[in-house]
Amino acid sequence: MADQLREAIVTGSLRPGDRLPIEPELSTIFGVSRSTIREALRLLSSQDLVSTSRGINGGTFVMAADPAKLREYLTTRLGLLSGAQVISIRELLEAREMFEVPAARLAARLRTDDELDELTACVEEETVLAERGADLEPHRAFHSLVLKAAKNQLLPLTVEPIFQVLRTRFLRPAAPGRFWRETAHDHAQILRHIRAGDEDAAATAMRHHLEQLSQVYVDPGVGPVAEPLTALASRPAGGRAFG
Question: Which one, 32, 36, 49, 237, has the greatest CB density within 10 A?
Fold first, then answer.
């Protein structure tokens, strides 16, 4: 019964706000006991598909989808899978590139003036903070704003959980100051191409940037995903840290 109701909700036969028949009616419709009905409804409720309220206007209703809950669910499940080493850090990084490179291309085509202003303010803040040391928040915000400018609601839903898992499980505790300055520089380059509407250049710049980011993540039990940051920090000041 739960599977049948779930399919009806997922396919749109039952829509958000629709009220389900009362338990005796459901029992008759499906030919099962009321205890089976209650168990099925509890299962659907645990999956955020239905909710039950009491009172004159109460009943069991189909719930509207909540993107925040889906994002939280994906973050939790990805965290568990990565913790159990079912999904590797390299797979997470590769998936991130698969989403964010096309997102930069879309952002260059579809961004609004307001979104350009938001990206500009973010890069300016990041540039200032980079001189004081590591600060991940503006870095995260920049990537989120690019996803927003791409005008595809699935992108933040899928990429933000990946970003969160990488940050909480694999991010190095510290990175050279040069790394954060170069990160701000990369973001400024991506923004320049997005502002110019150059889709190819924006995608290329984002791919390069994500390749460099792999150096701040560590695969537990294996070591750095890319070249150690201590080696990068010791490079001559005249060249790019991640060139």
Answer: 49
